[in-house]
Amino acid sequence: MILTSGGTSAARAAKDATQTIPVVFAAVGDAVGAGLVGSLARPGGNLTGFSVITGELMPKRFELMFELVPQAAVIALLVNPKSPNTERMEQDTREAARRKGVQLAVLEASSASDFEKAFTGLSQTGAGGLVVAADALFNARREDLVALAERQKIPATYEWREFVAAGGLISYGPSLADTYRQAGVYAGRILKGEKPADLPVQQPTTFELVVNLKTAKALGLTIPPSILARADEVIE
After folding, report:
1. Residue 209's closest CA among 225, 197, 227, 184?
2. Contact criterion met (CB below 8 Å) for 112 and 144
3. Measured between alpha carbons, how far is 224 from 174 in angstroms, rounded to an integer?
4. Which domains does the chain have, with CATH numbers?
5. Cross-strand partners of 24
6. pLDDT digits (tens, 9 = 90+) for 15-59
7. Which of 28, 133, 157, 161 could form a disulfide with 79 if both were Cys (CB 3.0 to 4.6 A apart)?
8. How many other β-carbons are positioned within 10 Å of the β-carbon of residue 52?
């Protein structure tokens, strides 16, 4: 059996490698659209797992950033141009910016070596905040991104709690740890004889808002009471 945790790309690689070995994926985006399964309810084939709703939350993350820096005329969006979900996330975020009357500055990084250049570009946009797109590359190198945001003294929003635990300012999305736990449960069921084709692809039903007050203080930023009241976790 194969258990993948590197997002859609890792799951697709496993699918391309075998049509017989059971595969359980975690934290993929659109499992049907990516061609991993036939449908969520009836996956078919040898793959099943957990499809996260995170790219779809980009407008919400933008709105959180706008709440944090309502005076900003420009907010930046960091995307991976090689990700198949980038176009949709960029369009959704751009529409959210239009509704708020804010200019959106799009920065690109398709590898960790692009991070420095992207953040240099960030300083040139005059952006008052940064929204980091949902992407496996960014999650894998979250400590680097958090460090760069700290160095630039830029408020930033992220998809996973793990970014905030690493020193990021704020995140909104499903629980990555819970997704991995559930993938482990599926793996156990398959090892006991169940077939991936018979196990429906699951999606999250709850989302968590996490805030790091220590980071806010370092940025000289006051978190609005409206955000603190909604927060599921506050790191001090």
Report:
1. 227
2. yes
3. 22
4. 2-53+175-198 (3.40.50.2300), 55-173+208-235 (3.40.50.2300)
5. 3, 48
6. 999 999 999 998 787 788 888 898 999 999 999 999 887 778 999
7. 133
8. 25
